[in-house]
Amino acid sequence: MNVTMVGAGRVGLVAAACLADFGIKVHCVDNDVRRIDALREGRVPFEEPGLSELVNKNAVAGRLCFSTNLPDAIRQSLVIFIAVGTEDETPGSPNLKPLFEVGKQIARAMEEYKVLVVKSTVPVGTSRRLAREIMKETSISFDIVSNPEFLREGSAIENFMRPDRVVLGASSHQSLAIVRDIYRPLYLIEAPIIATDNETAELAKYASNAFLSVKISFINEIANLCDNAGVNVHDVAKVLGLDRRIGPKFLHPGIGFGGSCLPKDTRALIASAHQLGCELPVIEGAYKTNVTLCSYLLERLKNAVGTIEHKTIGVLGLAYKPLTDDVRESRAMDFVRLLLKEGAVVQAFDPAANAAAAALVQHENLLLMPDAYEAASNADALAVLTEWNEFRNLDMQRLKKAMNGHVLIDARNCIEPNEAVMEGFDYFGRGRGTMATKEQPAVVAV
Ligand code: UGA
């Protein structure tokens, strides 16, 4: 079977490589010529563990090819997956123009029945709208299947290959059978395949991401309370997580959820609910809480070092989460922006995202450093903002020696508080009681 994947981004390229690994011939198409040229030379344009190897293995085997020629790929494929970006046009309003543009191009190029599979995250009713637009361009029959993608950056291949579920929202038995067959290799691992209608599939994707947002904001609110109550949030989270109705995942406090999905999809769900005359106070509250967390952290920093102006602040971690170079809607970047606005000099280091951060924020007071110790050099305070594993084993003595000051803000609870305190740091984590010092050690997890 031949399929086309439109979009060689973080979802499209992973899905293309994984489908090729299922033994399917995949034509991966993107209108970014430089991206396609790089992929043809075996270069994957972003960080994702294992992706380079999977892309190159399948390209060499002749199952994965890259092109900018969409009409040609369409003519060779029965199934066309669409995984184009839906970044906000205005807050809460995803940009669907690229999706509709691809729909139009497919309509113009197709010469026989096709199945269009929408992988992009879109508001409820979008597939129906897309069908109407395509019908304006062609009288050839087609079906649209909504197949939202639930993979996470950093573990994308594992998530695609071993999904919790595959959702297929279809309006015909024929298209459902064709797409179900593509996912046949997952029968072996008994991955549940949920067959439903387009609208349910679309809404279920938004609801999943909104639920994750609520869970993260919930634990961040509990972490704030733990700070004041002198209780360790990880012990509280453990008790919660052992209740199988709650589950242990997504109960890590920090500076809030970021990335290109949770914030955008939560906003979009709220906006589409408003359009349908419905309020979602729990989800809106989760979103609002998320927005306050950077200022909460800044206040803690100010309490510890006084005014931020002219201070040098070391920052460890810029990506929105570890194992990626993605800084889109990164709360770490928001925090850096706040520091710069307050007049600080920021010395930042991220194991993968220095270049992306430099492209996003150009400021004479933002200095990107080659490692954690350089970032700490002569700093008045140090803030750990992304939980890269390498920050869990920093040499506290070396860090402390490199710095001018002694304030350590651990926004992701990567560091053993009392190890830092023993080296003379004033330590502030998330939900680990108030500032810990030598005189007043931190509340450690039991
Ligand atoms: C998220 C969802 O987890 C995926 O299921 C979904 O497919 C994807 O969005 C999407 O819609 O494409 P992703 O954005 O890759 O995946 O990242 P997550 O691992 O969900 O993390 C999102 C944010 O939440 C990060 O900033 C992370 O630091 C934060 N987070 C996550 C927490 O603060 N605490 C947690 O316990 C978990």
Attribute tags:
446 residues; alpha/beta; Rossmann fold; 2 domains; six-stranded parallel β-sheet; 17 helices; 43% helix; elongated; binds uridine-5'-diphosphate-glucuronic acid
Spatial gap, N to C terminus: 55 Å
Question: Helix content range of the residues, please?
Answer: 40-55%
Structural class: alpha/beta
- Low-pLDDT runs: none
What is the molecular shape?
Answer: elongated
CATH topology of the largest domain: Rossmann fold
Largest sheet composition: 6 strands, parallel
Which CATH class of the largest domain is shown? Alpha Beta
CATH architecture classification of the largest domain: 3-Layer(aba) Sandwich
Mean pLDDT: 96
Please give the count of helices.
Answer: 17
Bound ligands: uridine-5'-diphosphate-glucuronic acid
Q: Could you characterize what this model shows?
A:
It is a single chain. This protein has 446 residues and is α/β, with parallel strands linked by helices. It has 2 domains: 2-196, NAD(P)-binding Rossmann-like Domain (Rossmann fold, 3-Layer(aba) Sandwich), CATH 3.40.50.720; 223-428, 3-Layer(aba) Sandwich (Rossmann fold). Helix content is 43%, strand content 15%. The chain has helices at residues 12-21, 33-40, 51-60, 70-76, 97-109, 126-137, 156-161, 173-182, 198-229, 233-241, 262-275, 281-305, 331-341, 354-360, 372-376, 396-402, 417-422, and strands at 2-6, 25-29, 64-67, 79-82, 88-90, 93-94, 114-118, 142-146, 166-169, 193-196, 312-316, 345-349, 366-368, 381-384, 407-410, 426-428. The protein has a 6-stranded parallel β-sheet with strand order 3-2-1-4-7-8, sandwiched between helices. Helix 13 links the parallel strand 11 and strand 12. Helix 4 packs across helix 5 (97-109), helix 9 packs across helix 11 and helix 9 (198-229) runs parallel beside helix 12. The protein starts with a strand and ends in an 18-residue tail after the last strand. The chain binds uridine-5'-diphosphate-glucuronic acid (UGA). The site of uridine-5'-diphosphate-glucuronic acid has 21 residues, from helix 9 and helix 11. Uridine-5'-diphosphate-glucuronic acid binds next to helix 9 and helix 11.
